[in-house]
TrEMBL record:
InterPro entries linked: FAD-bd, FAD/NAD-bd_sf, Geranylgeranyl_reductase
The protein's enzyme class: oxidoreductase
Superkingdom as given in the UniProt entry: Bacteria
A molecular function (GO) term: oxidoreductase activity
Database matches in Gene3D superfamilies: FAD/NAD(P)-binding domain (3.50.50.60)
Name of this protein: NAD(P)/FAD-dependent oxidoreductase
Keyword Signal tagged: no
All copies of domain FAD-binding, residue ranges: 8-343
UniProt-listed Enzyme Commission number(s): 1.-.-.-
Native organism: Streptomyces sirii
Keywords on record: Oxidoreductase
Length: 415
């Protein structure tokens, strides 16, 4: 039997999508030699089931990468948003200081993924290994020491002092490493479709909270609007009986519904009837998980792409020196730093999302905050900060914010 080819790197990253490409670029800029391993061979490969929404919280990461100008050239749309509730529309606008609201981008993954992968492959220090499937985790005792891959060229051993799983919600690296995970049931299902020629009430992203059903419509690059519906699973039998008819009927009944009368559907209606939220142990000796491999959020909130960018940057910031120095002690400290930051930044968001994924009605706090945001400009901006993941649950639901929301609603009832 022929022995596998052995290649040596500082970092081996499994998955050349948003998180993997971001980590590869940032670690390579710090001087690391990076193997960026992608199981798909096509340079145009991209994730289909996605919100195509880059949260404002990730804008700085895109700027640090240097890809914001490339996204704008590719037609990405600055994603200002409005949200429908039973109390009316929440429409955040700039305050009296005139400072624009923070934004991210709406951009289709068929545009974004090839752009990022090409950008990463052009970075000195990054080797893009397309068509390579990770089949085993190499170990040095209890420590990850690389991966074994198979491709048309045969088997290879990619040895590295840091292994990164950036391979999505069904992460092979996470399974091979045997890390702990916790799954939360999602009582909603999701369907997405892309249309050209949609007419909207306003040229911005729309989200409908129908309590418990949700929908959104988001203008994207090349004149495409992505429309998604996220209903309670109680409605699933009707959709299974007639997917297209049920989808179009659902969209047509939305308040200020997107006008599809002259629109062309340019994609299949794709979706999932079972999408649990998964939180994993994000580090082990010599190993880290980023993006959906670390934490798979509810697509309802459109957080996946933004958190992929952010978690990749958090890891690269923590581990860049250790990846080059070769010190195991330094790497252990770096991974602990990353683990603590990931937990601090995202645990609260995931907790609230997992609770709302039960398809329950709004709780009293949500009713208070959403109703106030529909009635008051400052509360609408506060909602924007939270929906954009620029602030966490503790600040969103702080005593000051709750008191201000209560005062807004009291004034409304007294008017």
């Amino acid at each position: 039997m022929t022995s596998p080819q052995v290649r040596e790197y500082d970092v081996a990253i499994s998955g050349a999508s948003i998180a993997g490409c971001t980590a590869a670029v940032l670690l390579a800029r710090a001087g690391a030699r990076v193997a960026l391993i992608e199981r798909r061979s096509s340079p145009e490969a991209h994730k289909v089931l996605c919100t195509h929404y880059l949260q404002p919280c990730a804008y700085q990461v895109l700027d640090d990468l240097g890809v914001s100008p490339l996204l704008r050239e590719a037609g990405a749309i600055a994603n200002q948003a409005r949200w429908y509730t039973r109390w009316g529309w929440i429409e955040p606008r700039p305050g009296r200081d005139g400072v624009p609201l923070a934004h991210g981008y709406n951009v289709r993954r068929s545009t974004l993924d090839p752009l990022l992968r090409s950008y990463a492959a052009d970075q000195p220090g990054v080797d893009l290994l397309s068509g390579h499937t990770v089949t085993a985790l190499l170990r040095d005792g209890s420590r990850a020491a690389g991966v074994r891959t198979t491709s048309a060229e045969g088997e290879q051993e990619i040895r590295a002092r840091l292994v990164v799983g950036a391979d999505g919600k069904d992460s092979a690296v996470a399974k091979l490493a045997g890390v702990r995970e916790q799954a939360h049931k999602n009582n909603r299902f999701s369907y997405f479709a892309q249309f050209r020629g949609v007419r909207m009430a306003r040229e911005e992203s729309h989200c409908w909270f129908l309590d418990p059903d949700v929908a959104y419509a988001m203008p994207n690059d090349d004149g495409i609007t992505v429309i998604a519906i996220i209903p309670d699973k109680k409605r699933l039998p009707a959709f299974r009986a007639d997917l297209e008819g049920s989808f179009l009927d659902f969209v047509g009944r939305l308040p200020e519904a997107p006008d599809l009368s002259a629109a062309e559907r340019v994609s299949k209606i794709v979706g999932t009837t079972n999408y649990p939220l998964v939180s994993r142990q994000v580090t082990a000796p010599g190993l880290a998980l980023i993006g959906d491999a670390a934490l798979t959020g509810d697509p309802l909130w459109g957080v996946g792409c933004g958190w992929a960018l952010q978690s990749a940057q958090w890891l690269a910031t923590a581990a860049r020196a250790a990846a080059v120095s070769g010190s195991r002690e330094a790497m252990d400290l770096a991974l602990d730093t990353y683990r603590r930051r990931h937990r601090r930044q995202l645990r609260g968001h995931q907790f609230l999302a997992a609770d709302y994924a039960k398809a329950r009605p709004f709780n009293p706090f949500e009713r208070l905050m959403f109703s106030a945001a529909a009635r008051d400009e400052s509360m609408a901006r506060h909602m924007h900060l939270f929906a954009s993941r620029l602030i966490g649950p503790a600040r969103f639901l702080s005593p000051t914010a709750l008191g201000r929301a209560a005062a807004v609603n009291l004034r409304h009832r007294s008017a």
